[in-house]
């Protein structure tokens, strides 16, 4: 893995952790009391962040196996099985390939693509 790919993984993990660090009380619904559910929710939130990071890594690993895809230019954010792909590819046809690869990863429920086509300089 090159430095750029490693930095994308680190950045993606940091963003996912930041998004998932919302206080437990915000997500309380119905008759749940925030005070009574705060401790179990914290454990559950931690487990969810761990699961989201693991799924992001699985999707990124699947993309990295495809030689025609520059995986270092793509970041993966997972949340409850919903995967968002950000970054760029060199050809429009690669967008569908990347989406298809992401959909094959166990645990992925949906894929949102925010990928763009960016040709290398000089082409």
From TrEMBL:
A Pfam entry, by short name: BON
UniProt cross-references to InterPro entries, sorted A to Z: BON_dom, Lipoprotein_DolP, Transpt-assoc_nodulatn_dom_bac
Domain of life (superkingdom): Bacteria
Keywords assigned by UniProt, alphabetized: Signal
SMART domains membership: BON (SM00749)
Signal sequence extent: 1-28
Domain called BON: residue spans: 51-119
PANTHER family: BON DOMAIN-CONTAINING PROTEIN
Protein name as catalogued: BON domain-containing protein
Taxonomic source organism: Paraburkholderia eburnea
